[in-house]
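sorry to bug you again but im stuck and you know this stuff better than me. what follows is a protein written twice so to speak, once as letters and once as structure tokens for the fold. mainly i need to know what kind of three dimensional shape the backbone takes. anything you notice is useful, everything is just below:
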Amino acid sequence: MKLPGGWTVHINELSEGLYDPNISLGALKENLLLLSNPYKKRIIDVGWYPAGEKTGEYCLLLMEMGVNGVNTMLYSSYEDVIYTYRTKDIYQLVDHINEILGSGVAGNPF
């Protein structure tokens, strides 16, 4: 991932091991990545759902932080979700995260 300025990493469990097709199911958990950007008022939350299940998939949520900090990272809810992306492919997931992070580029919908 290419993390531009303004973003803070709170959780990063997206390790190289997740690219291994023989990964332990225990490594596939709900809290894999949590990023926030108070300037853009955005939160990126990534996890594997259902956790530990081979039938699961990565779920990326792009959330909006509330007005005046009411819905900060600790208090955001699913009502704040503005975009959802699901995939089993970690390479597609990382590409999608990079696309969202690079949202300062003209024409990017994020």
